[in-house]
Design goal:
- It is a single chain.
- The protein has 13 helices and 8 strands.
- The termini are close together.
- The longest helix is centred in the C-terminal third of the chain and has 19 residues, at 311-329.
- With 334 residues, the protein is α/β, with parallel strands linked by helices.
- Helix 12 (282-289) links the parallel strand 6 and strand 7.
Length: 334
Amino acid sequence: MSFFKRLKESIASKTEAVTNIFKEGLTKTRTAIVEKVEELITRRKKIDEEFYEELEEILIGADVGVNTVMQLIEELRVEVKKRKIEDASDLQPVLSEKLIGLLKGESNPGLQMAKDGEITVILFVGVNGVGKTTTIGKLAHKFKSEGKSVLMAAGDTFRAGAIEQLEVWGQRVGVDVIKQSSGSDPAAVMFDAVQAAKQRGVDVLLCDTAGRLQNKSNLMEELNKIFRVIQRELPEAPHEVLLVLDATTGQNALSQAKLFGEKSGVSGLVLTKLDGTAKGGIVIAIRNELNLPVKLVGLGEKMTDLQEFDSEQFVHALFAGLIQRETEQAPQED
């Protein structure tokens, strides 16, 4: 059975599972990649150097990432020679197959949670302005809707208005916020938050942290201090350290991920504002270039638009229409 026949069967069984949230959230990226590739293939009948150059531009423009694009183009060249492909239209299924392969990669690990009866602690890091506080608020709502009790800690004591912003989200979703005055020691806030979580027997503690200190070493020292305070009280915590990135910044998001990296204890990534950008290809770049899984994605402004990242949903929402057309046009097997 051919790749695309198998894929068609897979799509048929999963069509219902592909949520409208993913489809709508990826509209701009779908236009940036799929529609432009289709236009290129229709316009250029022959696979030559100019074809490869234009394809590179489309993918880099969608922030798939230079390294990833170079790897992808090289793999396409190999397949073209091996399969003796001459017409650009015949390359379309091969390209789709390669893009899907890059995206699907590893399995989806999901959020790491504490054992039943224990407190799950999730720490959020990231520079200012990426949607960190909004992500915390939306995740609090998600956990509450699942029947879990939640507490939030206002550990970003340096940015003006950060504590108040988290409090607004707390009121909106009905979750208490543990705080101290602006400029307080963030580690002291975390200590208070852990003690409160223990006393109240909550299921999940969501902790905000400063997005920027004077320099990177200060930021890492502050994070290490927070880690020590939390682990002294809850040795298994934090269960996740999520780096929040703004997808609309494209390659800057990738640079931030590399800057924080695994040395800061980051266990996963959150990509916000995917619905507002044509640069959703950054998901492909991040999954291909960094050893860090994407755990959550922001696909809109509604409370429910923060979703656990699912590569199957992402792939099918992005490419389902294109693949469906290809399978319908492909010759039928006996």
